[in-house]
Write a structure and sequence with these properties.
Length: 349
Amino acid sequence: MHYRYDELTGYAQSLLTAAGLALEKAQSVAEVLVEGDLLGHNTHGLALLPGYLGELASGGMEKLGTPAVLADYPAAVTWDGRRLPGPWLVLQAMTLACARATSQGSCTVVIRRSHHIACLAAYLKRATDQGLLMVLTCSDPNTESVAPFGGLDAVFTPNPIAAGIPTDGTPVLMDISTSATTNGMTNRLHKEGKCLPGPWVMDGNGVAGDNPCVLFDEPKGTILPLGGVDSGHKGYGLTLLVEALTGGLAGHGRADPKEGWGATVFLQVIDPRAFAGLDAFTRQTSTVAAACRASRPAHPGIAVRMPGDKGIALSSRQMQAGIDLYPSIMPLLAAWSIKLGVTAPDPST
């Protein structure tokens, strides 16, 4: 089933406004969710919308108002997101950070008490299109599903790190979890009775495997850090860095009472023009990208890609041919369509 980009964004926006969001917030959330599907991140695109609508209905996601400013220095800003929609908050923070980076060289915004921010990769090209380098990461202090390396008890969320890096051609768009997989993927595969591609989870006795059911059985298992049982100390270290950049700098995280599904966010924008210059920057990044793509393939016929190459190419194709949604997404939204009186789009032919 393929759907037109404008019809999907309009559908998502209509559902969100019917659920009580103002138009600007609804448009931001809809665009970011559909961008996730355009890039192929189908666990973090419109698959999240039923959960967001449920949070709006229950009051878990705040509908009205703006973030509270807790600190405001020229290049360092701290917000209390007041549990407002995460995609809208991140886009607002990006607007501020991009503007200040052009005059200050860089600007960092941290947000405590944001709601979930969806697919991190969906934000990056907005910065690289302006010749700006952006780093974005988040944690959810309300949830634990990832164990520290060598431990059995979950402490962390998958804690993704994303970065958008300009080149003189296709930008580098990196979006990785510091764990072996994500909550979205394990939840989906568990519901479908399927296994993971590798031993990315660990049962409650410390045995690694590929069946996500161990996350739901007692004693509860956990997702392994990035690197798994052999080199998970590396993912563990990156996870701790994310915790420091998010909860540490925002002053709100796992030391505080849980409030429900959400995020603590670190967003930094750097303008290369304030350093050696944009041309010098992209000369270096483009040379590295070209060398990577020119590397002899380890598997014949499968060329080396840069992070983001696949997603950008897929996005371009899907903008023309329609977005290929994961099969479970529209059925999950059907009940909300009925409840909110919003007509779902028909698949494109």
